[in-house]
Give the backbone structure.
Amino acid sequence: MAKKATYQELELRIKELELTEAKSIIERDRLNNILDNTNDAICIYDLSGKVVGVNARMCQMYNISKEKALGETIENFSSSTMSMEKAHKHWERVIDGEILLFEWEALSPSDKSVFDVEVSLQKITIDDEDVIVGNIRDISDRKKAERKRRESGTKYRTLFDSSTDGIAIIDVETNRFIDCNLAAIKIFGIENRKDFLGVTPDQLSPKLQPNGELSQILANQHIQEAFKENTCEFEWIHCKSDGTTFPALITLSAMVVNKKKFIMGIMKDITNRKHKELEREKLISKLQDALENIKTLKGLLPICSTCKKIRDDKGYWNEVDTYIEEHTDVNFSHSMCTICSDKEYGNQDWYIKMKENRSNQK
């Protein structure tokens, strides 16, 4: 037969229970104080998925009071775009002991605003009862920045691929292409981007450039200049995939990303421009030859004031027409002016008659 507890023993047990409860209350207050001073939202669920506790940050993040939050479910805090089937699978895995970290689109039950969060779920035991603790962090700013980066990347890719000039990016350390646009593929006659990235810059140049220097050495000099001056521009002879060469105008821009060096090269095929320059040079040469063959008279000519003959460089006196024909490309057709005709034939009948007829015709 069990021995009855004495009054003193019962009083001692009551005090022990009161002390244990007091300690529990103190621990809970301490826990609540910690939870309310954290920057993340904390939400405690029972295993059925109902909210049994929240901290101040949770109320602030979801714009809801603590009283209204209690008793809500995961569905009430999730955007309509989120899959509840996926949420339930997450829940089952956490109940089985997994700790999950995932991104989610949250919903404020009060104003229906939607925002991005990162959620960490794990099962713990509080006062001999299993619960699910959700640590929720607002990542709206981060996701917004990510979207901007994606949009910027899309714009960059669009501009990159729509350029009519060839653009390629080289990893300086490996001397390999890491990207190129569609124009670069077309310029070099390569079938696709994968094949382009499989070749080295050296394979797209002849061994020697027109100045007799090795392409590899000269290319390295231009790359060094680009890193020194940020950019450099020069003409270059490139090779297509079939081995044919073509002239190009190259602009190199140096870039350093995460302490790694890259070169962005912009290539413009200037074959047509070179053809036009060659034609222009040929035309200029022809014009210069023509100018050299043109004979002109310059300076003072010694001419007789009486007979009007011109003295040449050898001291001989020449008729005006003879001298000009010898020193220019001018040819003379000889005829007589009216004064000289009258002086020469004025007293002859045929001449007098001819002038009368001309006078009557007028």
